[in-house]
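Recap for those who missed Tuesday's class. We walked through two folding examples back to back. For each one, the amino acid string is listed first and its predicted structure tokens come directly after. Nothing is annotated here on purpose, so try labeling regions yourself before you check the end of the notes.
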Amino acid sequence: MNYDYLIVGAGSAGCVLANRLTENLKNNVALFEAGESSDIWKVKMPLALLYTMHDPKYNWKYYSEPEPHLNNRRLFCPRGKMVGGCSAHNGMVFVRGNEDDYKRWESLGLKSWSYSQILPYFKKIENWSGGENQYRGSFGLLPVNQSKNSNPLFGAFLNSASEAGYKINPDMNGADQEGFGMFDTTIHKGERASVYKYYLEPIKSRENLSLFTKAYVEKIIFEGKKAIGIEVRIKNKLEKIYANKELILSGGSINSPHLLMVSGVGDADHLKEKGVNVIHDLKGVGKNLQDHLETYIQQECKTSDTLYSYTKLLPKIFAGIQWFLSKSGPCSHSFLEAGGFAKSSENREKPNIQFHFFPSFVINHGLIPPGSHGYQLHASPNHPKSRGSVTLNTSNPYDYPKILFNYLENEDDLKQTRECIHVARRILSQPSLKLYSGKEVGPGNHVQSDDELDEYIRSNAETAYHPCGTLKMGIDKMSVVDENLKIYGLKNIRVVDASIMPEIPSANLNAPTLMIAEKASDTILNG
């Protein structure tokens, strides 16, 4: 089988690429996804996001290696394994990052990734409920809506942020990111607005698009340094499928470097050690792994305005019925809609923390139900300096790779996280939350000194689910792709997903990933 373009991975980036590349009817495109359809109620219902996160049918369910600076804990690293990828199981918060994020990218020698050059692509994505303006788009394919969640805890939290001296920002994707408010969400008419639903589903019948699900790509086929195709297992049969023009990797920050390495592209010494035949020695493959690390500041709640009630059988059933009948009620929200961006101390020039407010306790990624009414503030430094890696366990493409985030290796990351807790406590202690606030249960009022806070962080901090950077774009010797996303030293192969981010932006990563895919699509189509 031959196609012009082979896209490996039908996640957020892959769905965008499939849509845009097939707009030209002369392009014959094949899209490969190891998982299956995401056209199920568990994906569509916003509050059901934890169901697919813990289901191996729809999630890769990776774990990190023991993290040396987090008391050797192995951290959960869920990744979407279905059409739509992580857009089909994320928290539906739509944040782009700020102008400074992309100025930093530009300063790394990536002139075509300046804020002014990528802003049109962010606008191109959006059908924003707030309407078209200098910063926002209203003609895009993806519904992006200002949250209207009326839970009283959100109003009390935002008032408390204001009382603590922080500004209220009506649009954190607009002219300025700093401040607190209600995040934009990819929730539309009570349902998750996944990239599959709005980019891929409407064009699935295009004659020049072939979608293969339950299709596990085992290897890239090379002819010298030229990528010519893939070996892919479809319905338990190994097929060789060839690309007339290009192979595009969109498997994400874990799977894309893993596929390259098992195919012979990466650090030659590492590949030889694992028994892989070296096609191309490229030291940066799998390096530069970054993520946002969150610490939870938790308080008991004196009222019943939290999600605790919906852990009980009858309220859960009634909420589910309400959603199935009218796509309304608590199940039509993610409840991650309130938060903001702030400086962790007066010494920080720019906002360096992102906060999410959540009206419930989250214990072990939702596997353990909370024991009482409560709420929590998730706090994470935006620009961690620590770097990790994705490496091979074995040469077998079905063996999961080793993932080491190396969280908090850099001392400043720990200091910023500690400062996060002080800011969170200041906000949560303001008058507007007095009606609701019970005792602090995490870290707890007895935890005050730097050493005590550090131990709380090391024992409890969790991923914000934002891995990126493992095939970084740049011009230095550890860069893997150039600014057109072509892999250095190879022909006919690009990477289009969050792995190309040289530095993690101040954002939940779905919106920046969509921007990357929209921009890459234009680059590919314009030759």
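Example two. Treat it independently of the first, because the proteins are unrelated.
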Amino acid sequence: MEVPRERGILLGWLLLYLWAFLLGLLLYVPGMVWLSRLGAKPHLIFALAPSFSIIVLTIAMMATELAGWRVPWYGYVLLLAFLSALGAWVNRSNMRQYFNRGAWSSSTVPLYIVASLVLVTWIYVKSLDGPNSLIPLYDNAHTLSLISSFAKTDCYGPLLSSLYLDAPQLFQGISYYPAVLHSISALTANMFGCSAPEALNIVVFDILFLVLPLSVRSLIKSAFPGNREAELFGVFSPFVFYAFPWGLLIFGPLQTFILGLSLVPAFLSTLICLLDKYASNRTAMLGLCLTGLIALALCHPGALFSAGLLSIPAIVIFGMNSNLVCHGDQKRKTSILIVMMTALAGIWFACYNLPFLSGTVSFCWPAFTSLSGALSAVIGLSFVDSPAQLVAALLVLVGIISCIRRAERSSWLIVSSLLVAAIFCVDITTDGWLKQLLGGFWYTDSRRIAAMLVIPLMPLFSYGSGRVFTICRDAVASKRDTKASPSAMASGIVLLLLVLAFGPNVSLYGSVNLPSAISFARSSLASLYSLQTRQLRSGTDESPMLDTEELEAGQEIAAITSDGGLVLNNALDGSAFYYSACDVNVLNRTCGSGLGTDENADLSKSAVDYASNPDIKKKMDNLDIRYVLQLDSGARPSDGNTFHPFYNPSDWSGIQSISSETPGFELVYSRGDIRLYRLTAL
């Protein structure tokens, strides 16, 4: 009996939530039961629990890969389940103590989970054009292809990866890549029997729904201990800023960096507890810090450098407040400060000159604005692509002023913000060695640097919201002639500000327009996931490199090419996504393959000569290429639906110039400007 379409769609969405919930249990339960053994605060355990599971999975996957074993998905699930059961038994007294101490009864974890579920559903899930939808932008082709490569071969090694694990004739050995996100997504795809795009959507949902908010919650509790108002209003802080996480999803998208950066607040929270001069269990805090650092390094090196940069003010302040410094004279304090700053600068220079980072730190995005434009972007939180976020900026400003006036011990977050803001300004206004030195660890990509800047702003936003509540509550309470509830009135005022911070767009009498950054993010995500043209802030339109018709044709092409062999394709016409989205065995699986120094670049230029060029024929035969695909036949893909702005027709002339009259090629599929040719001289 056929299930009605509406019921099928509803079932698909329900399964997405169910699978995300089950994956969340796998990521959190092992870490929660084992980290509880350290006797740390509950909020730290919640925040760092996924780091523990990430480390365990990485070790297990690396070991099986190096041993040459192909362990199916349930092997890793059983490992995590066994560790959870063993940890619950070994640490039963610690866990009983946690639950008996009464700390959980007043926990805000349920509030954060419910609020995150609502906000992530509204901003992210509602933007998806179905559980299997994808964003056909440049970086995502590699992400989805690597997930598919892992999933098809039961090879999940997150540090040793290849896009061609299922194609022996193309396999050139494994190489380093921080592929934790891809490994977990491939595990998810096999666990639930879903496609690579759907698995990625599930993992991203879990990052946004669990990892990020619980990580930020921990940072708020460590930065402002005992401040209940900041903690309560902090439920909105992980999602109110455009630059992170939404801007990274819209540009790239950069899901790997999102995962790494989502763990940074948890590390900073642990660092605050470690550097607290009243800390009673420094050994446990040190262990938690190391856990966080290792997870950051595995998820994304850029996130590790982000954590290091944001930690500098806290480390310097701790060093200056140590007994060694406090009991010395001013000259000695100055000398120690100089030594500390010199050591930190030395570490920075040493990392900058590491050989394996040379490709990263030398990558350059050109400057595009003036200093005044950069300062305006920082003050108004209008980083690169988004409208200004004036209400969010106001609440951050209140938090900064209140921190300074009340001499909060976590005022170093302000210094961290200023430090990253300075790097952001240098990055978008200048070119040269200073820009590379300061921003090179993030590819001099202003979007990544802006996302990093948001991390210290989140607790400041929460603190500012709490201060507005307190000020309004006290003001109402001081009015003796009012019968209004001070807390209710204050809550209403803060919630009104938060509504304005999230949107919608405001237009007053046609002369004053206040666009909402979150509304802009939602519309951009919806356009990208539905494969429609979206309007940029500059007023220009950006067309996706893959449209709905081409994606639908991919299923039909997959059926035709299922007899085996490879499909030669133009990587810049959108067909690079066919491998992961449609299970078409294409040769070029990323938007950067088939070009320049790629060893198969000659095929992109000369495949049309297959019947007359013995060298080309031999190479195509050796690679077992049986088909050639054109998604934009008769036109430059850049004139059709493509993202890449540097498309050079001569790079792909060997594919694009093939027609039904070309010797050695037979037209076997045609739809619109889509053509599939079979090689006849096999």
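Answers for example two:
Residues 186 and 318 are 42 Å apart (CA to CA).
DSSP finds 29 helices and ten strands in the chain.
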